[in-house]
Hints:
Layout: H1 2-33, E1 38-47, E2 51-60, E3 66-77, E4 87-92, E5 108-110, E6 119-124, E7 143-153, E8 161-163, E9 165-167, E10 172-177, E11 184-186, E12 188-191, E13 195-197, E14 214-216, E15 223-227, E16 234-239, E17 245-252, E18 257-259, E19 266-273, E20 278-285
Parallel strand pairs: 1-12
Antiparallel strand pairs: 1-2, 2-7, 3-6, 3-9, 3-10, 4-7, 5-6, 8-13, 10-11, 14-15, 15-18, 16-17, 16-19, 19-20
Amino acid sequence: MKNFxxxxxxxxxxxxxxxLLSLFMFLLSFSSMAQEQITMSLExxxxxxxxxxxxxxxxxxxxxxxxxxxxxxxxxxxxxxxxQGASLSWTALNNNTNSSWNNWPNFTNVLPYKADKKMLNFSxxxxxxxxxxxxxxxxxxxxxxxxxxxxxxxGTWSPNTDFAFDFExxxxxxxxxxxxxxxxxxxxxxxxxxxxxxxxSQLGVAENSNSEFNxxxxxxxxxxxITLPSxxxxxxxxxxAEGKVILEKNNLxxxxxxxxxxxxxxxxxxNISSENEVQTIRIVKN
Length: 286
């Protein structure tokens, strides 16, 4: 009888331990599935002999809802970007027109440009949004949160120089995760933007100039043509800054005409896809 109860007791302990292990594995599995991750991308818009504009896009690539609080854009640009003796500065343009974002980033702090480190440094105000007023960072195409302008003083861009931006580890998006009232610093996966800058105006899509796909004229008053290789058919769609498709045509040939109609002036994305290639080109409507 004593031995029987000992065996039963051992089996109970074993069963309890197995239950705890199963619970631990379930929680570990759940936590690995419930992750927050934000992608921050810098997207080139345009350049003139002394300025260059780009926009910042945020996308929720995790599986938890994240509300936006603030952002830190910090990184290094390419070497020899400007001519010798010139200086570089940058500022937020405060041109976010999305109503839920209240024209963010009207309250900003552009930290000093560090010429010796080729460092661009921007932090937005952490008190502009709270947990109630903060907008969601969407998945899919995400959202363009604002644009910035680089300005050259005492010179111009170095001819035929690739612009590139490498995010620092301290670059981050601050947000409210899964309904929390307290902010968290979220890891970001930054995208480098490479664009050939020169002394000529390059409104539109300089970064796509080597592609066999193109659009012209760019900028446009609304009508533009699609350039494709001969004997290639492609599907074309045009989306706005919020990812809404405003124009779509299929099975097009070289020289096909597109018409944006009465859409508002601004920057749009032209997605061109053939059987073997996909290309996105930015176009400016005047």
